[in-house]
Design brief:
Strand content: 15-25%
CATH class: Alpha Beta
CATH topology: Rossmann fold
Helix content: 40-55%
Number of strands: 8
Structural class: alpha/beta
CATH superfamily: Alpha/Beta hydrolase fold, catalytic domain
Radius of gyration: 17 Å
Strand order of the largest sheet: 1-2-4-3-5-6-7-8
Number of helices: 11
Order of helices and strands: EEEHEHEHEHHHHHEHEHH
């Protein structure tokens, strides 16, 4: 299995496909690089596709510290440089999208375009804080299984959760959630919950940017996508019908087609 040793963490990554250009995929909190399998399989015929697990999640090292978003951004900047895949198209989902924004502001030389999926440039909403803190405490000290169903209902839309044809897929994603290391998971959650907003810096992003949001996303809602769309000069916004927060998993065909159309756009060349 491929690992890369960075200055302060050992990250698991996968490298698929061939092409003159590279797409790098950044996943969400609580899950791992598997969430982009549909996108990688669709795009690897034309692009080099690099996906990875953030520190403390998936198969990557659980470090003692370094879970704030600025440190995670430096992790991924180092990974991109070491794998010689820049400037890249960066596709970031949720927490991965927050990292994508920070990469674009702090390391513009590494980025060619952005796809921001179900993410936000704002701070964590205060109304979510108490619930998230309680669920995090339960997951760390009593076990994530006690809150797994609640987390699934927050991340996935009702259409996905109630679809009898996707019972096995739902079980697969619940197992991904349950496989989290308790310590790494709770440190990652804290990093997201305590993040600083950077909406005031969006004007510095001068790359073609596609913003996607699930129509039924209750975690990063449409108004968050609008803030990014209004702040980034070369951006466009698309809504994924029926999807909750996990639109790349819930509606992969629509997401794949929108990403492919965006990457083929004349704006990128």
């Amino acid at each position: 299995m491929p690992y890369i040793n960075l200055k302060n963490a050992r990250l698991y990554y996968e490298d698929h496909g061939k092409g003159d250009e590279t797409i790098v995929f950044g996943h969400s909190m609580l899950f791992n690089l598997r969430m982009f399998d549909d996108q990688v399989n669709y795009l690897k015929q034309s692009y080099r596709c690099v996906s990875f697990d953030f520190r403390g999640q998936g198969k990557s090292e659980v470090t003692k510290n370094g879970y704030d978003l600025d440190t995670l951004t430096e992790d991924i900047a180092e990974l991109i440089k070491n794998l010689d895949c820049f400037p890249c198209h960066f596709i970031g989902f949720s927490m991965g999208g927050m990292i994508a924004l920070r990469l674009a502001v702090k390391h513009p030389e590494l980025i060619k375009s952005l796809v921001l999926i179900d993410t936000s440039s704002e701070t964590e909403p205060t109304e979510n804080m108490k619930q998230n803190q309680l669920m995090t405490w339960i997951a760390r000290h009593l076990g994530i299984r006690l809150v797994a169903n609640r987390v699934m209902s927050m991340f996935f839309g009702n259409r996905f959760l109630n679809d009898p044809k996707r019972i096995e897929l739902k079980r697969t994603w619940k197992n991904h959630l349950l496989a989290n290391d308790r310590i790494g998971m709770t440190r990652a959650i804290k990093g997201v919950m305590t993040r600083k907003g950077l909406s005031q810096l969006l004007h510095k992003i001068n790359f073609p940017t596609l913003i996607l949001v699930g129509s039924n996303d209750i975690l990063t809602t449409y108004d968050k996508a609008e803030i990014m769309n209004n702040g980034i000069k070369k951006s466009s916004l698309e809504v994924i019908p029926y999807a909750g927060h996990m639109s790349p998993v819930e509606e992969p065909k629509i997401v794949n087609e929108l990403i492919s159309h965006f990457l083929n756009s004349s704006l990128l060349f």
